[in-house]
Amino acid sequence: MSQVRKNVTGVLVCLAISLPSWLLGKKFPVIGGPVIAILIGMVLALFWQDKGRAESGIRWTSKYILQAAVVFLGFGMNLSVVLKTGRQSLPIIVCTISTSLLIAWVMHKKMHIPGNVAALVSVGSSICGGSAIAATAPVVGADDEEVAQAISIIFFFNVLAAVFFPILGCAIGFDTTSGEAFGIFAGTAVNDTSSVTACASTWDSMWNLGSQTLDKAVTVKLTRTLAIIPITLILAMIRAKNSRDRSREEGFSFRRAFPMFIVYFVLASVVTTVAQGFGVSAAAFTPMKELSKFMIIMAMAAIGLNSNIVKLVRSGGKPILLGATCWAGITLVSLVMQHVMGIW
């Protein structure tokens, strides 16, 4: 009960920010609720530096609400259906993710970009934007300012992709009688679901394709989202191993070092897969998926409140360059792989 009283003020502040952010995110899906929440939090933090009784609850929200959101995110994944329908795009997805991770690792080493920022930007660029960052941040132990920086960078390149990729598709000669090629391109090269949807819908509208491009892009994007599972598991095991190496004392516990919410996230996706295999409607899991999205918005509000926007702007040069390089690498590899596979 004392913990509830200690944290309730901060949680309510985050809730107050997240409600209008969620509504605005519905109205402006290219921006999205999480980005709006983190921006509101950052602006408030400029004027509200001494958070007093709210401090504890804000930090609790940025950590535990975020972890709970990732677990509920697992209920949106039917592993068998997504893999079955996304098999065509799987080689492209593997190559684009590998490219982004390799670029991030090289730039982390050569340009001395902080490891957590490099990890967050690379998984956000290559997997699924804010959701991947939300899942990865607690695994690598990223602080709120690192998360805020990564989210801001991903948002910037999201908007660029939504605006310029349809123009690029026309310039390089994508098939305009079918949405397959551009749908695969949008699903593999655009990082966040909202921008994938906007990009694919624009192509459908340009060439009167109904929802061909959108259907293909969303299926590919769902397949790509599955990469959260192996990536976060690998990062979690690396972090646990490093913790063990740094601490040889007898009291070391792998269970304490390994973020168990990732296991619950995997179990949630397995529950969804098995349940739908026995005939349970996908609609039964929709409330949990929506709850996950809202909890991510709450966590982003807390992260914004804990961030220093002035510091982020001053230190943003190298991370922005990293985001641009990952984005360019993913785009190029997606196009090359599609050409090699004869898709366009």
Task: Please explain how this structure is put together.
The chain is mainly α and 344 residues long. 80% of the residues lie in helices and 0% in strands. It is globular.
Seen as an oligomer or otherwise, the chain set is single chain
Largest beta-sheet characterization: none
* Helix and strand composition category: mainly alpha
Order of helices and strands: HHHHHHHHHHHHHHHH
Quickly count the helices.
16
Concise summary:
80% of the residues lie in helices and 0% in strands.
Layout of helices and strands:
Layout (H helix, E strand, L loop, with lengths): L1 H26 L5 H15 L6 H20 L5 H7 L4 H22 L3 H26 L3 H29 L7 H10 L3 H15 L4 H14 L2 H19 L7 H4 L2 H18 L8 H20 L3 H6 L2 H24 L4
Helix pairs in contact: 1-2, 1-3, 1-14, 2-14, 3-6, 3-13, 3-14, 4-10, 5-6, 5-16, 6-7, 6-11, 6-16, 7-9, 7-14, 7-16, 8-9, 8-10, 8-16, 9-10, 11-13
What are the main properties of this structure?
single chain, 344 residues, mainly alpha
